[in-house]
Structure prediction request, 484 residues.
Amino acid sequence: MDRSATTRQDGHRAAAPGRVLRELGAQVLWANWTGASTVPSRELYPHQWSWDSAFIAIGLRHLSPLRAQLELETLLRAQWGDGRVPHIVFNDAVPLDAYFPSPDFWRSTTAGRAAGAPAGVQTSGIVQPPAHALAAWLVHRADPGLSRARSFLARLRPRLAAWHRYLLCARDAGGAGLAAVVHPWEQGMDNSPCWDGPLSRVEPADPAAYRRADLDHGAPEDRPTDLDYGRYVRLAEVYRDRRYADAEGPGAFAVEDPAFNALLIVSECALALIERELAADDAESGDSAESAALAESAAERRERADALTKTLVDRLWDPRRGLFLCRDLCAPGRDGELVPERGVTGLIPLVLPGLDRDITATLVRTACGPHFGLEGPARLVPSYDLTGPAFDPRRYWRGPAWFNTNWLLEKGLRLHGDHPRADGLRDALLEAAVTSGFAEYVDPYTARGSGARGFGWTAALALDLLLDDSRSGRGGLLGEEVWS
Prediction:
C-alpha cells in the first residue's frame, strides 16, 4: 500500500473508519490477485501459499464470494494423489530466482511422482496448517446460492476429505491420532523458538549450495538466521530425496503442534457441516442413499473432533504453564518429550468448541498474563513469550505479533463468551492493520510494521473482522450448530 493511501485514510478516519478500511483492504487484495488466486505479497511471496489462501478466502468472501471460491479451487487443483495439499503452488511466469526454495529445488513432478504430485503444475512437497475446510464452509455461507449453482461444496468435499485423511493417517507419526509436522515451514510459524530444540539435531545445509532470496526484500535482523535457514534447507532436501514418503517414519524432525492440530479439528467440524449440508441437498433431490452416506460421515467427523480434542489435551496440555506445548517426537523416550517453550501456538486451541471450560479459562489467564500481555503491555498477542530468553520483537515468529494468530484468538475468545476481550482485540487488530500499511507482522508493543506491506491475509482478516456480522452470537467460527 502506498503512503498516499495511508494519508488519505488518516484524513478520513474520524468520519468513516470502517469505509476507509474496507477500501484500503480491498485495494490490497485486488492488487495481489493474479486472476485465479492471491499472492501473499507481490515481491517477497510471489506464488500461492496454502494457509494464506485459506485466510485470504475468508476475507475475500465479503468482497467477492466468486473470487473466494476460485482461491480455494485453484489451490486444491494442485493437490497430490496421496491427499496432501502442498504449501506452495508455483506460478510458472515468476522467474526461478525470485523465491527460494524454487520449483527446481522441490522437483515435485519427479521426486513427488510416487506420492501423486500433479504433472501439470510445480509445487512444494510439504504442507501447511489445514484451515481449508473451515474456509470453504465460510465462503459457502457468504453466498449459498452461488455456491450451489457452481456445485462448490460438492466439488471440494472429496478433496478436503482426502486432505484430512492424509493428515490423520500418513502423518500420525506419534501413533496417538494427532498429525505431526516434519518441517517448521509446515506448522506455519517458521522461525519460532519452539523449534530450536528439535532443530538442534539437524545438520545445516552448505550455505554455498543455495541463495536466500528472502534477504532481497527483508532486513536480515527481521528474518531467520543463516544457521536456522540452513537447517530448514537440509530438512527439505532429505524429505525430497526420500521422495516425500511418510511410510518410512519421521526423519530428524517430527513435532505434534497444538495450533496445527487445533485447526485440523476445527476443519473436521467444518467438513462435517459441509457434509450435512450436502446430505440435505441430496435428500431434497431424492438421492436418499448418498444423503444417508454423507450424514453418517458427518456424524463420524463430529465424534472424531471430540476424540481429537481429548487427545490434544492428553498429549499437549501443560497445566503448570497454563497452555499447550509442542511434542518433539524425535526426542529420547517412547513418546518423545514436550518442548518447554511458550509460543502462541499453545493458545490457538482456544478456537475449539469442545474444549473444557477450565482449560479455556486458564488459556485466557495465560494470554492476559506476563508471558503474552493481552490487555496489558502488548497491543497484540506476540508469537512468543514476552519474558522468554529468545524473545525478539522484530525477528520472524520469535516475538512479533501476527494477524492470523490474533484473528484466531479473537474468534476463540468470542466462541467461549468473552466478548469484551474479543472486542478489544478486534479493535486493536483493525487499528494495527491500517496504521502498519497491512504489514506482514508488527511489534507487539508498538504495532510498528515489519516484513512485507500490503500483505494478503492481513488485509483479508481485517476485512473479516470489520464485515463479519456474527459477532453478537456465541457460535465462534462455525456457528452454534456445530455441537447441536
Summary: Residues 1-16, 480-484 have pLDDT under 50 and may be disordered. The two ends are 43 Å apart (CA to CA).
